[in-house]
Amino acid sequence: MSQAMQPRRWTEEEFFAWLQHQETKYELVDGQPVPRRAPDPVTGMVGATQRHDRVAVNLLVALAGRLRGSPCRPGTSDTAIRIPGRNIRYPDVAVDCGKFQDAERTATEPVLVAEVLSPSTRDFDQTEKLEEYRTVPTLRYILVIDPMQPRLLLHTRGADGHWSAARIAGLEAVAVLPALGIELTLAELYEGLTFQPLPRVVDG
């Protein structure tokens, strides 16, 4: 596509001003607004399920309790994360340890972001979006949470700047977040939910 045919890139200011008048949540991707959540591939419906929302709220409540009195605070899916030189993303939950600013629309010093997987975004959240989050210089933790079973993937940035990933599973398991000085139990993240048994593997 020639340069003349390429759509004009929106500025952050234009995007946030436009976003205030939208009923659907959008993100700024490559200079253009795109819906944050695509329609479910099975039902065609847009929006999170109650199960998805329950996990996100449980995480938010757990973080709020653990971080009370600290300089860090949890944020909802309305907390914007600025991807350096590129996009504006909205994770399901975030933790911001920067200075609180009343009128600021993006996290000032995000340390943790969490995405609760959904059918329409599962693959993207674990690939391209994950790589975007890894470019945010202040981020130390990325949680990718499976709402259907008690398991998550914890991505941690070490002191050397490199990322590592650990699978954490089972209601008795604990996610340790030393940079925030807290621990999260999977039991509290999945409080109020029941689980379908996993398919049995039958040996041939």
Report on this model:
The protein is of the alpha+beta class and 204 residues long. Helices cover 20% and strands 26% of the residues. The protein contains five helices and twelve strands. Strands 3-6-7-8-9-10 form a six-stranded mixed β-sheet. It is globular, with a radius of gyration of 18 Å. The model is unreliable at 41-45 (pLDDT under 50).
Properties at a glance:
single chain; 204 residues; alpha+beta; tt1808, chain A; six-stranded mixed beta sheet; two-stranded antiparallel sheet; 12 strands
Short note summarizing the structure:
The chain is of the alpha+beta class.
Arrangement of strands in the largest sheet: 3-6-7-8-9-10
Number of DSSP strand runs: 12
Shape: globular
State the end-to-end distance.
53 Å
Give start-end ranges of low-pLDDT stretches. 41-45
The ordered string of helix (H) and strand (E) elements is HEEHEEEEEHHEEEEEH
Question: Could you say what the CATH topology of the domain at 48-189 is called?
Answer: tt1808, chain A
Class computed from helices, strands and strand pairing? alpha+beta
Mean pLDDT: 86
Main β sheet profile: 6 strands, mixed
State the helix count.
5
Radius of gyration: 18 Å
Helix share bin: 10-25%
How much strand? 25-35%
Q: What is the second-level CATH architecture of the domain at 48-189?
A: Alpha-Beta Complex
Say which CATH homologous superfamily of the domain at 48-189 is assigned. Answer: tt1808, chain A
CATH class of the domain at 48-189: Alpha Beta
